[in-house]
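Help!! Second protein's tokens look totally different from the first
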Amino acid sequence: MGVTLRPLGEGRPMHSALWRALRARLADPAFIALWGIVLVAAVLRLASLDVIEFKGDEAGHLVRALQIVEGHRLPLVGSQASVGIAKPPMMSVLMAIPLLFGRDPRLASGFIALLNVGAVAGCFLLVRRYYGLRAAAVAGVLFAVNPWAVVFSRKVFTADVLAPFLVLYLYALHAAVVDGARRGWLLAVLALGIALSVTFSPLPLALVLLASIVACGRRVRWGYLLAGGGLTLLVFMPYLYAERGLLLNLASLLGSAGHTSASASPGASALQAATWLHSGRNIGSLAGASFAAFAPAHSPLRGLDGLAALLFAAGVVGVVAMAVEAWLRPAKRSMASRYALLALWLVASLGVVSLGIVPVETQYLVILYPAGFVAMALVVDRGWAGLDALRRGHPTGWRLAQLGLGALLVAVVLWQAYCVFYLYGFVAGHDTAGGYGVPLRSWLAIRNLVRREAAATGVDEVWAIVDGTDVGYEQTPAILNYLLGADLRVTFLGQGGNESLLLPAGRPALYLLTRTVPPEVQAMLSRVGAQERATLPASPGGVPARVLFAPERPVQELRLLIPVPAGESVLDSGLVFLGYGWPAGVRPGDTVRLATYWSLRDTPAAERWVAHSLFIHLLGADGVTVTQHDGLGLPERYWQPGLMLVQWFELQLPATMPVGDYTLLTGMYRLSDVSANHVLDQAGAPAGDSIRLGPVHVGG
């Protein structure tokens, strides 16, 4: 049997066709421009994900998303809006997607970054279709490298997920108004609805849709428009049900927000913030306390930011002028609706924000994306086209002008990309309090430190002394509760600034300290045998942390540490008073730090979700209160039987008080109605509402 040899490539028509198609693609300027811009956008947004901003708001969004992933419960509302009502829960739904793969905030940040890379690509494709390749390349690259656009494309924050839906909305409006596509009306309503279900800031853009409906008149496809409205209503139904009471008072809420938060000149502030967003100006504000060291803010090259700002201002004015010109000239009238959409988008956004209904903050003007970059690109495109008039009469001048315009554009792009990478390096090594804040990297270092020591000591709980205790509203507890919550139970001590400490009674204790503690707290840690196991030293841009471990101690052994034992006085809240420690050598005018010792038993169900406060009163011989201090350092959600608590009260003694013996009065009351928790007798019956202690001496 013979073998027939064929020329190379013969008999492979499919491979040849694919190769020809690929070569054609690689030779297509639009293809090269698109993927070049996508690559730049991806590199800038996906680089250094460990230095993203990560604050209490970001942690809160991830906690709500965990309710979906782990609790299989769909939140009805999201985070709190500035107008006094909760936002819809779409942000939680979106964040549940990356959390399916893990709790690491970098996964969520990467997901958001990829969405925004898609927004940049969508912007290019939109402009390519309706305005031409040159404008698409300029709009895409400006969107890809703009420092503020990059900053608002990585955080776990509502403003950072808007751009993809706004690009889709702008495309849908063009499809409906320019192309007459029926699906455009449905898609426009749905895209705007999804954006609004993330946050309320895109609401001014509804004016663009309304104006489009009025302008198109009979060309509106009402069936598709209503279908989009129906789908949007379905998205909003759970939220509308949950907030039905507050929404009835929305007008008064908006009026209150406008009255209390409007700036003196909101119009000027809105225009300034919009200029920053499109030029990279004021990116140095993220340096916060280290602004003086932020090199781009002091570089002569910052003039390029001014050039970009001027281009944005020209873009806003330019698209309005282009819309008017196209309407007045029949030869260009086909472009009038396109320019009008952009002009309406920019003017409506700036106009509504300028009313001062909400504070003029940079993130509220992210709704200008991508229209602002498209307007800037159209001005460049129009200028470039204008240079063609010089081509025949002044070819040298034409080439020089083109080179000059191109060089300026390249310089702006390179400068802005440099500023992004500089910012990443800067926040990792500088104190940016008041600006960018503590980057995620520092919080991850604390998480890893605590995890390692918990595994080494065999504990599954950590007692944390940090700034604050409320995981819902205070930044450090919110962040650490999210980062550590997957592996450890975290108890935050010191509620309301009331210093307190849990002791290793019948259980070992792992302590996390991220702030300086008073000497008496440090002394108590030493007395219970707590040894420092690991530290993160204070560093610029980071949070110092100490991890201490105290071995398990018998309860009776720890009770020997109480300076003045007082038996056991049981409260009906489940707390038991054990004793106190009055410092020696107290004089009038001193600030006394009084230690009180408590243990916890079973808490009645009626007391479990009620906020409480302990109190300590210093009484004179006549029974009159000389000074007092109220507070509770251990939040009720952490109460467990068997815990042993030390709480310090700060008593400011009057300088004029007489020397002598005084009586202490302590107890607990409910904050909801200021009703006292009773002291129980041995039979469990109420026997009073306070515990008398003393005498204690105030010397001369």
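Here's the second one for comparison:
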Amino acid sequence: PLADALRDGDRVRGVIKGSAVNHGGRSSGLTVPNSTAQHDVISAALADAGAGVGVESIGMVEAHGTGTSLGDPIEVDGLTRAWRRQTDRTQFCAIGSLKSNIGHLEPAAGLAGLVKVLLAMEHEQIPPTLHVTRPNDHIRFEDTPFYVADRSIPWLRKDGESPRRAALSAFGMGGVNAHVIIEEPPVVAARRSVPQDSHVLRVSGTTEEAVRDLATSYARHLGAAPDEDPGDFTFTANTGRASHRYRTAVTGANAGELISGLTAVAESGRPVGRLANQPETGAFLFTGQGSQYSGMGRGLYATEPLFRAAVDECAELAGPFCERPLLDVLFGDGGDQEAIDQTRFAQVGIVAVQVGLVRLLESWGIRPDLVIGHSVGELSAAWAAGVLSLPDVMRWAALRGRLMQACPTGGAMAVVHADADSVRTALSAHPEVEAAAYNAPRSVTVSGPEAAVEAFCRATSHRTTRLTVSHAFHSAAMEGALAPFADAVAATQLSSPRVPLISTLSGDWHTASTVTDPRVWAESIRRPVLFSDGLARVREAGARVFWEIGPTPVLTTLGRACLPDPGLRWSHTLRRGHTDQRQLHDALVTHYNHGQAEVRWHAVHQGKGQRTTTIPTYPFERRRLTAPSILTAPLPPTGETRTGGHPLFDRHYVNGNEAS
């Protein structure tokens, strides 16, 4: 429908208001048309166009018009009889035929006529029908609604406002008749395009050579206007071209950077990927507290409408539970690092950004097969797995952060760079210090009162790194938060995970009973995070592609330490100090170039105000095909009879390319 085309930014050249097809049935000859059938199909097309499309609003008829003494009078007669149902006016509509310009294209003749009509509308000129020195003697145009367009005629709108309309006929040998009523497209309002920090451009072909040839054409086209915004170009290439098995994609902030990437593809400096027959299992890793920073996700909020809508929804849902508007905390003028570092704001802010990232990736066709979260990240993971609704996860995040911040301060945390057994042995002499997280084979976080943690760090022989925190999280200091949070969980309707979900309390998969147990979610505040064990379960389940969902790639570093397999792929979505959209586009391109399923390219451009434009077409790899030659045996001498085969059916056909 027209509304969908306008919504999607398609370039509308014309609108089909009405159409009809019929068959003339028996006539006096195979090539002799049936005037009544033509009259009927024209009347049916006018009826299909509706009462608002009268014949007097039509300014041009593109006739089948073969120029024959028999066919043309029959065609004009059918048109006239159909139009006379609505008007008695004469010679107000131009009539012509493209066949005078380019000849008869047989089955493509109607399509050529359509192109003529659309170009006439765009140029506001009715082109002439050539070589008309004397109209057909059997047509009395003065008694019809039509006059021959034998010269170029300015095409003015009826009453200066009504849209231009044309009628087009195409008749096939044997009696098939088609007629359409075409209207010029509506005037499109000035678009509001969303400024982009990054663009992604895919190149796809049936062979690797085709991909490189198309990359060359794209680079040449963009190079002709390097200062123009490439948004319309990438939109057209990504959404208006077929997807093939061989593919690659490049990113760039502008046309120049895209050209550099395309040139690398064209010159074989960048590999061409291929669609995998079986996509690899993917996991989402949800970052926990400590990854937050002021302005996290601000770039995506400005450039990605779907991310913006998701974060706005989260902010509205969190509003009743937060002391300050969440958007002010996340994106306030100048940034408020002190506010976002407070647990009551950090946790709900991280979850909101993670929801926006998941919504955006899912719209692009990237969904997790498995999920795991670190501390507060497990709330987002549970939402992504379908355990609880978005309003509930925002309420949980706000409450969890507020309860944890209300716990006693004066705590400290540190990372011990040693294996778990060594850390447990070292902690035995410091009863006030607890293991807070087992993150990697040689990365264990400890937590406790500040003096006790400081004493432990001085006493241990292992290398330690102090963390900047306000509380001793995942320690006895959090006891006061457990009961109120368990009550909130108990009041929430929870479901079994639709996507397998890790419990970092046990380091194993959540079950239908654990995921709905309030004590499990409450104890996760107090007990250590068994991230390394949980990640091992994820890998055992077949995961080979890992996406870190969060503001900072903390878990990617830990994950690589836990799973050093070089065949695994790790992608992170945001990174402080990097352009948000470019960071995410780079991850998308890596995913696409490895052939992991298809990307929903329309969603990549959704809501950005980009439109279809003219770009290079597909570089077909043409081959010359020859008709097969016929090898025949010599005729027998006169008087002899050929034996052993039929003179026609037993001839041997050989492809000409193989005959030699």
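Reply: Different proteins will give different token patterns, so don't panic. DSSP finds 23 helices and 23 strands in the chain.
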